[in-house]
Amino acid sequence: MFYMPQFSSLTKPRPLTTNGENDVILNGVPDWVYEEEILGANNAIWWSDDGTKIAYACFNDSAVDFINLPKYGDYHDVTNLYPQFRRFRYPKAGRNNPTVKLWVIDLTRMDYAKTEIVPPEDYKGNAHIEIVPPDDYKGKYVH
């Protein structure tokens, strides 16, 4: 994830995360199961109302199995008459789901300090995160 405090030709985006890895660690972008079944959205980034903080989910799919599914092209394109196979992480029933952590970044600090939002003891080990409150993340965790 990157952040640009201002848009200008002199401003360069600054990295907010550095641990992303294709098909393994996804920051602010849900994996398949979270996008389709839980969040119903293709992003997992939430801004505070005043724009000084950003919360995001970090998805770790390293233990999730791969599946190959056909991807069909446009039937008008003669080079796409046969499907191609797309490989992606897909948790089946009884297999490993991704693990998820919630983080909040304070954009008012020069170092963009990150704080992990740790779930209360009675929520630890639950299968998934459903929503994040839009503001005042400190001490809040919703599963």
TrEMBL record:
GO terms for cellular component: plasma membrane. Keywords: Aminopeptidase, Glycoprotein, Hydrolase, Protease, Serine protease. One of its GO terms (biological process) is proteolysis. It comes from the Eukaryota. It holds the Pfam family DPPIV_N. InterPro entries: Peptidase_S9B_N, Serine_Prot_S9B/DPPIV. One of its GO terms (molecular function) is aminopeptidase activity. Gene3D superfamilies: Dipeptidylpeptidase IV, N-terminal domain. Residues 10-128 form the Dipeptidylpeptidase IV N-terminal domain. This is Venom dipeptidyl peptidase 4.
